[in-house]
Structure formats: structure tokens, C-alpha cells
Amino acid sequence: MIARTCFCTSVLLSLLAAGTPLGAQEAPVVYASYYTCGPTGQRLNAVIRDGFAPALDRAVADGTFSAWGWLTHHTGGTWDRAGYVVAPNVNAVLTGIEGLVAGLGSALQDLDAICPEHEDYIWERVAGSQSPGEVARDRPSAAISTYWVCDIAREGRADTLVTQVVGPILNEQVSDGDIASWTWFAHVVGGKYRRLAVTDGADAQGLLTAQAALVEQLEGSQRDAFREFGEICTSHQDYVWTVGVPAAQ
What is the pTM of this model? Predict the structure, then answer.
């Protein structure tokens, strides 16, 4: 969500060098920053609530972004917080980030002081239960994000398996009310994780129950496809997040 202008410039140069057709990417993209923070939760909440939220709300209102969000660690790995914005393509999200950073003033320095380390990713939507314009908007209070390490040469096949095999099961869970939504994202820029699966729901317990039911069904009726997916995406890290900026205390 929040990045330095130098990072945006380096992203643009690396994508252009690789020949990526930025203007052609019209699947919605998410620019996400994952933070490692000190033990100053209330101060951090105030910085996001008072320093960032008004600027981000304006950016959504004027169409720069279609959504933004803030996540607090519940269970999982080492990241403490995550922030994101959503735009129609890579060009749009990078331009929006540059404008946001320019207008944040001291709030950006405050965030850097509290959360001295972060990792940035750009994710592109591949499949999901929501229409492109609804991605990451009006989210419920809990989410599970699974970050996958995959074989870059075969990750397109993983996308096919998710779309054709996993997706229909997840759509049934949405229809049954077990989860609110799901989305599968592909890596555009960032670290080692090549794919991201996100499910949203009312609470962590319900999401974990739905996840266990999904795995059970895949191991039963879709064992071959499940095994093939595991051969392509060989390791992962799960996070349970609490969605939203905490209310003022």
C-alpha cells in the first residue's frame, strides 16, 4: 500500500526491461506492502487511521484506486501488518502510489519509524468469486491468505487447476455461506511468493473450517489434480488476518 517513490521507479524499469506490456494488463492488480513492526500497536493504528485513511479514501472517491485496506496479524508468519490498494492495471496502481506517497507528509515517516522493515508485492487477479471491480472491496472482518512458492515454468498450469478444479468447490462454499469470497492472484513483482490465495469470511474459525473442508474434498474426489498442484507449488505460508483499521481506543 505505502511505498517509496524509488521503489515505484525500479518496478517500472524492471517491467519494461522484461518486455511486460503494462498498458495491456487490465485484470485488476493489488499493490500490497507487508510490514514488520515494533510493539506500538495503538500508535500505529492512529497513524493509519488519521494519517493514511483520509488520503486513501479520497483516492478511492476520485477513482485513483478501486479499493484499499489494512490488515492486522492474527495467526501465521512474521509479517505484523499489511496494507494494499487496488487499481485496474499496473500503470494505474504505480501512478496512484506515487501520488499517494507525495501527499502523505509526516505520516509516511511515522509508519517507517514504527514498522522499519517491509516487503512490496504487486499481484494480478487470475480468478475468483467476485467481479474484477469488486476485488477487495467491502470485505468482512477476517481473511486467510496463503502465499505459494511455485515452479515458475509451470505456474500457468497451477492457475488452470485452481480455476477448473479448486474454484468450483470454493464457489460452492460462497453459495453455502461458508466463506464470503475467494481470489487467486499471480505474482507480478515482489519476493519469492509466486501465487496468492485469499478467502474472506466473518471470522477466523469459520474460514479455517472451510479450508479444512476444501482440502478434504480435494484429497477425496480430486486427488490427482491436488497432487499435481502440489508438485508445482511446493511450499506455502499461511496468514490469518483481521481486516480493517482498528477503531480508536
Answer: 0.89
